[in-house]
Amino acid sequence: MDASALRVGQGFRLADIDPSATPGFDPDELNGHGAKKRGAAALEENVPRLSDLQERLFASSTGGATDGVLLIVQAMDTAGKGGIMRHVVGAVDPQGVLITAFKKPTEEELAHDFLWRVERRVPGPGVIGVFDRSHYEDVLIGRVRSLAGPDEIERRYGAIVDFERGLVERGIRVVKVMLHIGKDEQKERLAERLGRADKHWKYNPGDVDERLLWDAYQDAYQLAIERTSTGEAPWHVVPANRKWYARLAVQQLLIDALEGIDPQWPAADFDVEHEKARLAAS
Amino acid sequence: MDASALRVGQGFRLADIDPSATPGFDPDELNGHGAKKRGAAALEENVPRLSDLQERLFASSTGGATDGVLLIVQAMDTAGKGGIMRHVVGAVDPQGVLITAFKKPTEEELAHDFLWRVERRVPGPGVIGVFDRSHYEDVLIGRVRSLAGPDEIERRYGAIVDFERGLVERGIRVVKVMLHIGKDEQKERLAERLGRADKHWKYNPGDVDERLLWDAYQDAYQLAIERTSTGEAPWHVVPANRKWYARLAVQQLLIDALEGIDPQWPAADFDVEHEKARLAAS
């Protein structure tokens, strides 16, 4: 699929994006199955390519390359972050991946600048880092719940742009994704969690508290995306009412980032023939 | 398969274990394919069971359960640790897994007791922690290379037993695995790495240095296993000349540990009907 349509550009308006759309992916591309099945099959088909790129990225770092990838995933509750972690990120070698789920900040974290805890989880060379929520919470819930004043929120937009530029300059591709679900779809997904005893653990009464602030969150996303979508670290808004589509789109964004790096197997830093002789004699 | 045959018991002798064996797994169980294919198919078949248990473990921790699992994998170079991480551990939700690859200790780590860096990576409740190498290096290479004196090595055996007992008392099942390959098989695998440009990055001249000390390492493993295999945290020696077998065996050991916990979905800590009404009104 072509994921370039998901990239945020000039005049971006979140409210204009249909959460049920499937841009860049033609549901009629394959015949004989439902879109869900076709999407899952396409996801599976791309795994070898993604795995190969990930292994090359990891290998290249052993030869001194400094490239890495940071995938940032933001979304309203139930939009499918967990499914992305499991089905997209989970399909690559876990040894080359560093997932961080950012929760409500601890006392220690609150005693530092909002970027402190995030900087500590930036992936090293060769690694695909994944943020499940991120420093963007500090300008999303931070704004909606007035956890910081307007001046501080303003400062944070700028600090985020600077921080991410620094990452890119160090060789880390920053892939920013908002999974965009509709309000009705969220209601259905929360209802499903409430309806099944084996899903209750995924439900939190706070989810409805946040849901009641839906419009304020959409505004906060609009603003955050506007203020922090840059040439070097653009946002991508991924319609997420169809889980198969969102997974496929994020997988493609990862593949695109890795292809942009085009990581190469490093040359041996030892004498291959000499080592063959040593091994043969051992 | 029945993995109980892999458990180290009284009178254990590493030298008596055939690295090409497949104990507990009858290669004739399934017909029509080679053992390798059958093993891969069996591995795939067990994934849903392992995934379900992992999700239950994670869920149970949100309800206050303190259970966790720590899989410790030790082996000579090329024995297949990476394949275990990728194909066994990599098949479960990465959000519930914490893999740590222990390398040569840093200056900071060396300034602390040998268990310091390990304690910091013990999995929390609900998590499957995986150690790719571990504190056992400190009684393996530590002994073979005389990185510590005999008295200190002696002290470490006891410290390890105490440390692991503490983990078990906290609710962490400790699954200790030695992947056991033969010396000839290692030679073939190292030769393969030397023979392919895209595998050179996996080769290190130090691998042959360690290989030259093969017998000393086998002795060190024998001793370490003898001294630290306890009722609460026994060792398992997994013949590893056949990769498909080793993966299947470690997967089974993980499943057995999780079945021993028998994690349950936690009860809702909120009023389900009340939340349904709030959601409906939102």
TrEMBL record, chains A, B:
Taxonomic classification: Bacteria, Bacillati, Actinomycetota, Actinomycetes, Micrococcales
GO-annotated molecular function: polyphosphate kinase activity
Protein name (record): PPK2 family polyphosphate:nucleotide phosphotransferase
Residue span of region Disordered: 17-36
Keywords: Kinase, Transferase
NCBIfam families cross-referenced by the UniProt entry: PPK2_rel_1
Organism: Labedella gwakjiensis
Domain Polyphosphate kinase-2-related, residue spans: 37-262
One GO term of the biological process aspect: polyphosphate metabolic process
Record InterPro entries: P-loop_NTPase, Polyphosphate_phosphotransfera, PPK2-rel_1, PPK2-related
Domain of life: Bacteria
